[in-house]
Amino acid sequence: xxxxxxxxxxxxxxxxxxxxxxxxxxxxxxxxxxxxxxxxxxxxxxxxxxxxxxxxxxxxxxxxxxxxxxxxxxxxxxxxxxxxxxxxxxxxxxxxxxxxxxxxxxxxxxxxxxxxxxxxxxxxxxxxxxxxxx
Length: 134
Ligand code: THU
Hints:
By secondary structure, this protein is an alpha+beta fold. The chain contains 4 helices and 5 strands.
C-alpha cells in the first residue's frame, strides 16, 4: 500500500513536469486510488489563462481515464514556505470520487519543508455531490 511519504514524494517529483510558464508556480499532485495504485498530475497552463488546469484535476483525470473511481488519499505539493491547499474547484472535483467517505480521505498539503494533513470533508464541508443527482 502506498504510504504518505511515497505520495508526497510523487507529487513533488511530478511537479518538475508542470507547464506553468505564466504563473511560474509549479504544482504536483498524487492520488491514491482504492485499487492501491497512484496517479499523478501537474498544472497545465494556457495562453488563454482561464483554460489552465490545476495539478489535482490532472491527477483525477489520469485516474478516471484509467478506470479508477474511488479516491483514498491525495497529496499536493508546491515549492512554498508553508504548504499549498487545493483551490475550490479542485476540492469539488476530488469530492466527486470520494463523496461516500470524504471524512476518511486524507489530503496531504505539502510545501518545501512542511507537510500538513487534513481531510477532504474538512476542506469542503456541506458539499454538493453525486448523491443529490444519482
Ligand atoms: N494550482 C494548482 O495546480 N493547484 C492548486 O492547488 C493551486 C493552484 C495552479 C494553477 C495555476 O497554474 C498556478 O497554480 C497558479 O495559480
